[in-house]
Amino acid sequence: MERYLIIKTRDELLRIRIGQILYFEADRNYTKLLLTSGIQFTFAINIGKIEEMLERQVEGSKKILMRVGKSHIINKNHILQIHLPKQRLILLSSEGKPRELNISKDPLKALKESLEKEMGKAEVKTDA
Predict the structure, then answer these.
(1) How far apart are CA 57 and CA 5, in angstroms?
(2) Model confidence pLDDT, tens digit, residues 42-97
(3) What is the domain-level CATH number for residue 104?
(4) In sequence order, which residues have a C-beta less than 8 Å from that of residue 95 and are 6 or more positions away?
(5) Containing structural domain, residue 118
(6) What is the pTM for the complete model shown?
């Protein structure tokens, strides 16, 4: 079943399939959304409100979309590379175009550990 996020502002309504979200990026009181297709939107909503919308509207959103630091919510399904020393996260869009995000070391390390833990659970399931 397809899951959607609906973002409403005073002047517009946007209905987005969760799988199409590449990342959200905070810019003061605005939030930029980049879709896997390369389409970009900017909202006059801070990233904390976006995170609340996700929790309210999308059941299990934390399994797919994860807050990484103060400025980003990323779609874990599109992670290509996490590079801790360079503080770099690379996400891959549907057209195969890499998007590089600079993220501070601690949130990036937490993301890496979270993914490793998920992988460990998957390995346990396949061994059983």
Answers:
(1) 6
(2) 999 999 999 999 999 988 777 889 999 999 999 999 999 999 999 999 999 888 88
(3) 2.40.50.1020
(4) 36, 37, 38
(5) 4-127
(6) 0.87
